[in-house]
Write a structure and sequence with these properties.
The complex is a heterodimer of chains A (about 220) and B (about 950). Chain A has about 220 residues and is mainly alpha-helical. Chain A is built from ten helices and one strand; from the N terminus they run ααααααβαααα. Chain B folds into five domains: about 30 residues, no CATH class; about 60 residues, N-terminal domain of TfIIb (Single Sheet); about 250 residues, Rossmann fold (3-Layer(aba) Sandwich), CATH 3.40.50; about 230 residues, Dimethylsulfoxide Reductase, domain 2 (3-Layer(aba) Sandwich); about 150 residues, Barwin-like endoglucanases (Beta Barrel), CATH 2.40.40. Chain B is about 25% helix and about 20% strand. In chain B, β5 and β6 form a beta hairpin. Chains A and B meet through α1, α2, α4, α5 and α6 of A and α1, α2, α3, β1 and α4 of B.
């Protein structure tokens, strides 16, 4: 159980960190925690180390942040055509934004009594929102576990599986690939490599866990 | 929120927590909902909301019914309550969703970090962007005067917020796209009627007062003949009702339609007669028609009663006009040795058979009601277009066709008034002082205008086409109190326009926007680009501001109806991303200017005066409809005839009015946004005809309130010339010393009929003309739906293979039942190879005979060169649908170098940018607009 709790907390942290980094502007406060993350024996360890090494090699943070924010603008904003629009609808819908995928994730947020602060302005399926929502669910799962609320834990884990399956994983991998091939900055290449592999391995993890197969009787018992 | 507290992080994740303590992104992205809120939000999903609003996918601005679902525009229909488009909507209107939700629209404010043209920007906050702009504007004002700032409000009618701000800031140089587009065609009506756009009486239904006093919708068409000269209403994106009305009049009233155009347009395909003259001969044809009618009119012969002499009751100066016109009749044209305006002369100039010219002249003279309509593809874009539009106006007037049922209507005179004090023109009357040649002089702000007191005294719609030169050379005022005052252009604010592609020669704009001074600073120190899509002009901007799309902002629309008809552009959805409405930008920049020390901007004129968008637009609605209660049938028979009408249609109808007999004003309940929302977004006042009144009480807006065949409107410019003792450089080449008092004549440029250009004809044997492609205006080319539809030889599926992000509707390549697939994962956007010959791109249209002689086959790559050493490359579309000796290109259909345009950018290397071939020095001598349709070229196979 302790291991599960650790994992849930780490997932909450990492999703939250990633969610924050995909919001503009990039600041030192958003980047520093990545450097301090523990390197665990996970499939994404190498990607994390690459990113951390890259960040540790930065001599002038002011210049780095300026260049990174210009590159962020080019990759995710434009102006005009740009390599990686950060919205699910672009990849899963008809090439426009705010499509059915955005409405679908909005419904998920509402189910959990959440609303994007900029609802109606920033599309609900922005990568930062989806990653941060995963962080929220992981956090709630951690809390449910600590309170031995197994039925809620089950629902939360099932929700995460479905959210990954129906939403995040179905487009974020392509989004990351676009950045890896388009960015001229190793920071973004490393960041999106980490994002990609993390989402993939997390999805694998959540699919293979035994508690997703718990019966109704079992979920009423303490883990 | 925040259950995963910082304390717990510390416990659980050791080393990672130090940074987490400093950062909490969750609360900056989401907020918790109460159970009640969540229920409300959930209940909203799937609900439909209808908003009545107006389009701007093209300048037609049709009334729309937008259906909103899940905070997203879900469907767009035509507003059936808006007679302008009567519920109809074209492909462009329907495709608005692709513009609003384009991933490539401008989403955030940005500041340039590379050199101009490099397309390197950094996203910034609104505050940072506003500070950047305001700080510089205040500096320029201090150093060069506010007149060194140009506000160009582009090609959308809702420019009031921007104009107000910049007029208040102190510049008189606030202009719009109409300043560079087809001003010569509007010149005649403006000069003689005080109007602008003569259109056929085709808008139906119209509300008409019945003999029993009731108001009923009238669906009947009275037109018997319409002549469209260089005007293609089935494509041209301006007057919606003309396309459907033309066909309806043909079908329901046996109306005959004649199209005069070197190109067999799609309007020509519905015409009873198509005449294909040489390009640039509109004035020639109109002059010959007028001479024919004058020479062959016979009061006593019903088969030759062309002229309706009643026009003399509501006009003045006809005899002077006639005398001057006739003075040319015995002069010999050295180019063809015929007498001016004779049938033989016109036949030689136009290339049409003289019998055909006589036939058209006779038909126009004898058929009542008729209308002669000229468009932007002809008089609008020729050097001597003002001559043609004067002749065209005269033809409509003397034949008695103006403002009669089924005749010709000057829609500028009939549309409702709007804007009023919200537009801020009152600021132009402020007294200002300048030191000129060491002497302090005083005048009004408007007397600093770069055009009307500079090189284009009669350029009353301003002269955007002349910008590149003035960006390089600065402005020299030559007339009025500030004569001798010089100032540079330091800031150029362009909103919803793309002059680099659509205004004068592209290379001149590029040169002007990248020119540097002796200190290596850009001459035009600040360029601000405000828009929703990202077009070429934006590449040269220092600051980019994302403007809310038309579905996200509020304003008013009224595109040239034959009677007062106003409709609301309402906010269907909130502004997406970080975009702001013009109203928000106005107040935001006003505050920033004050913050940086501007003393002309006052809170009480902006944010303290207008708390909401509605406040602003309510003020703009106050002057509506603003037209006199005149005509037959009288719109409001229970109200005094001739008095100005103000207020809602229902209050005027009910007689809930206050009448000021001294001022002759009838004031009903003021029209408001709220009232419009309660009435499907539309205010529709009654139609009437015969509103040109002998006693001067009608709708004419000339000084005499009559049709003026003597050009009194020029008097004030001639007075300026006399006072200054300097002939405007714009009219000097014509041999004029002042603006003429009545009819005048001069040749167009780059035309073989003009002896000065005949020498080029051997080496450059083709005339180049241009026209709009409905789907592919400068901005809407980023909309894929519209890019896939071909048009009339200038927008044809002749692409080479290219890669493009496309929707794959079956990414798994499996058989599936669409109903069983999750909509969220049904489609996939991915790069696809677009096969050659499957995607429409800009082409040139060339006659098959000409092509045969040059060895050019359909789809061949050709080079089109002009005598100025410029060329474009294009695929050739070979067909019989254009006169031999003439080639045609679409506007802005090729050579497009903004990545924001998607597929058209991918195909830029073999598609033609027409403006690359425009002569930037060939500017209308009256209006200053570039002569877009006057050019000689040669064509060769690449």
């Amino acid at each position: 159980m302790k291991q599960l709790a650790e994992t849930l907390a780490q997932r909450a942290i990492l999703y939250r960190l990633l969610g924050g980094i995909y919001t503009y502007p990039l600041t030192l406060e958003k980047v520093e925690p990545i450097i301090k993350l523990e390197r665990q024996d996970k499939p994404w360890k190498d990607s994390l180390i690459s990113l951390q090494n890259y960040l540790k090699g930065i001599n002038n943070w002011e210049v780095f942040l300026e260049e990174t924010n210009i590159e962020y603008t080019r990759l995710f904003e434009g102006p005009g055509q740009h390599p990686a629009p950060p919205f699910a609808s672009f990849y899963l819908g008809d090439g426009t934004v705010m499509g059915a995928p955005a409405v679908a994730v909005r419904q998920e947020y509402i189910k959990w009594n959440l609303a994007p602060i900029l609802i109606g302005k920033i599309p609900d399926d922005h990568i930062a929102l989806e990653l941060t929502f995963m962080s929220y669910l992981a956090n709630e799962a951690y809390l449910a576990l600590s309170k031995n609320n197994n039925s809620l834990l089950y629902v939360l884990l099932k929700t995460q599986e479905e959210f990954l399956n129906k939403h995040l994983i179905s487009w974020a991998l392509q989004f990351c690939s676009n950045i890896i091939s388009a960015s001229t900055m190793n920071f973004f290449k490393n960041l999106t490599s980490l994002t990609k592999i993390y989402i993939e391995t997390d999805f694998e993890w959540i699919l293979t866990k035994k508690y997703l197969k718990l019966t109704t009787e079992e979920i009423t018992k303490p883990l | 929120m925040g259950n995963l507290s910082r304390r717990k992080f510390i416990k659980l994740s050791g080393g990672a927590t130090a940074g987490i303590l400093m950062w909490d992104s969750l609360s900056s992205l989401f907020r918790p909902l109460s159970a009640a809120e969540a229920k409300t939000y959930a209940a909203e999903i799937g609900k439909l909301k209808t908003v009545y609003t107006a389009d701007v996918m093209c300048p037609s601005e049709c009334g729309l019914e937008m259906v909103v679902k899940n905070n997203r525009v879900f469907k767009i229909y035509g507003n059936e309550h808006c007679a302008y488009n009567d519920g109809t909507l074209c492909a462009k209107g329907n495709s608005g969703i692709q513009m609003i939700y384009s991933p490539y629209r401008i989403k955030s404010p940005m500041i340039r970090v590379g050199v101009r043209g490099e397309n390197k920007f950094k996203k910034v906050s609104w505050e940072e962007a506003m500070d950047y702009i305001a700080k510089r504007l205040v500096k320029y004002k201090k150093e060069y005067g506010p007149e060194s700032v140009i506000m160009d409000a582009g090609d959308v009618t809702d420019r009031d917020c921007y104009w107000r701000l910049f007029f208040a800031f102190g510049t008189p140089n606030s202009v719009e796209h109409g300043s560079i587009c087809d001003t010569p065609r509007r010149h005649g009506p403006k000069l003689m009627l005080g109007g602008k756009r003569i259109e056929p009486d085709l808008m139906r239904p119209v509300l008409v007062r019945q003999p029993d006093g009731s108001l009923k919708k009238d669906f009947t068409y009275k037109n018997k003949l319409i002549i469209y000269n260089g005007w293609n209403p089935f494509v041209a994106t301006r007057i919606n009702y003309e396309s459907r009305g033309t066909v309806a009049a043909q079908v329901e009233n046996d109306c005959k339609v004649i199209v005069i155009d070197p190109c067999h347009t799609n309007t020509a395909s519905r015409a009873d007669m198509w005449l294909a003259p040489k390009a640039g001969t509109d004035a020639d044809l109109f002059a010959a028609m007028l001479r024919y009618i004058l020479e062959n009119h016979n009061d006593n012969d019903p088969s030759h009663q062309y002229i309706d002499w009643s026009f003399k009751e509501y006009s003045e100066g006809w005899d002077d006009f006639l005398t001057e016109f006739k003075s040319w009749w015995n002069k010999i044209d050295q180019g063809n040795e015929h007498k001016y305006y004779s049938l033989e002369w016109a036949a030689a100039r136009t290339g049409l058979a003289k019998e055909k010219i006589a036939e058209v002249s006779h038909l126009f003279g004898i058929t009542k009601p008729a209308s002669l309509i000229w468009g932007m593809q002809s008089p609008g874009h020729h050097y001597n277009g003002s001559v043609a539009s004067i002749l065209g106006t005269a033809l409509n007037v003397i034949t008695g066709n103006m403002d009669i049922p089924g005749g010709a209507i000057d829609t500028e005179l009939t549309k409702a008034s709007k804007g009023g004090s919200a537009k801020g023109k009152q600021f132009l009357k402020r007294k200002v002082k300048r030191v000129v040649n060491g002497v302090e002089v005083e005048g009004t702000q408007e007397e600093l205008n770069m055009d009307r007191f500079g090189d284009w005294p009669a350029g009353w719609d301003d002269v955007v086409g002349d910008y590149p030169r003035r960006f390089m050379e600065g402005v020299s005022l030559r007339y009025g109190p500030f004569r001798g005052h010089k100032y540079p252009i330091k800031a150029y604010i362009i909103r919803t326009g793309n002059p680099v592609i659509t205004g004068s020669a592209t290379y001149k704009w590029q040169e002007a926007l990248t020119a540097r001074d002796e200190k290596n600073n850009y001459k035009v120190d600040l360029v601000v680009y405000i828009d929703t899509p990202f077009l070429e002009t934006g590449l040269y901007a220092d600051v980019i501001l994302p403007e809310a799309s038309y579905a996200e902002r509020m304003s008013l629309s009224d595109i040239y109806p034959p009677h007062p008809l106003l409709y609301l552009r309402d906010q269907a959805i909130k502004p997406l991303h970080e975009s702001k409405t013009p109203f928000e930008i106005m107040n935001g920049l006003a505050k920033a200017l004050v913050k940086h020390g501007d003393t002309d901007i006052k809170a009480e004129d902006f944010w303290a005066k207008y708390k909401t968008e509605e406040d602003f637009w309510n003020e703009a609605l106050l002057p509506a409809p603003g037209k006199p209660n005149v005509g037959k049938p009288l719109p409001y028979p229970k109200l005094p005839e001739g008095y100005k009408l103000l207020g809602t249609p229902d209050s005027l109808e009910a007689g809930s009015v206050k009448i000021n007999h001294k001022k002759k004003v009838i004031q009903g309940e003021p029209l408001t946004v709220k009232w419009l929302r309660e009435h499907y977004g539309v205010a529709d006042w009654p139609m009437s005809w015969r509103r040109f009144q002998p006693d001067g009480g009608g709708i004419l807006k000339t000084g005499s309130k009559k049709v003026e065949f003597v050009f009194n409107k020029y008097n004030k410019y001639n007075k300026l010339i006399e006072e200054a003792g300097e002939i405007p450089m714009s009219i000097k080449p014509l041999g004029w010393k002042r603006y003429p008092e009545t009819f005048y004549w001069f040749e167009t440029k780059w035309n073989p009929n003009n002896p000065s250009y005949a020498k080029y004809a051997k080496d450059f044997p083709f005339q180049l003309i241009c026209g709009r492609v409905h789907q592919t205006m400068s901005a809407t080319q980023m909309v894929p739906w519209l890019s896939e539809v071909s048009v009339a030889g200038t927008w044809v599926p002749m692409n080479e293979e290219f890669e493009y992000g496309m929707l794959d509707v079956n990414p798994a390549r499996k058989q599936w039942n669409i109903d069983k697939v999750d909509p969220a994962t049904r489609y996939k956007m991915q790069k696809e190879k677009i096969r050659a010959g499957t995607w429409s791109v800009g082409t040139i249209l060339i006659n098959s005979k000409d092509a045969g002689e040059l060895g050019i086959k359909m789809g061949d790559l050709v080079k089109v060169e002009n005598p100025l050493g410029k060329h474009v490359i294009s695929k050739a579309f070979v067909a019989e649908t254009i006169r031999p000796g003439v080639i045609k290109m679409g506007f802005a259909t090729g050579g497009r170098f903004s990545k924001g345009l998607g597929a058209i950018y991918a195909n830029r290397k073999y598609t033609p940018n027409h403006n690359e071939l425009v002569d930037p020095e060939a500017l209308s001598p009256i209006m200053g607009e570039p002569a877009y349709a006057d050019m000689l070229v040669r064509v060769s196979k690449v």
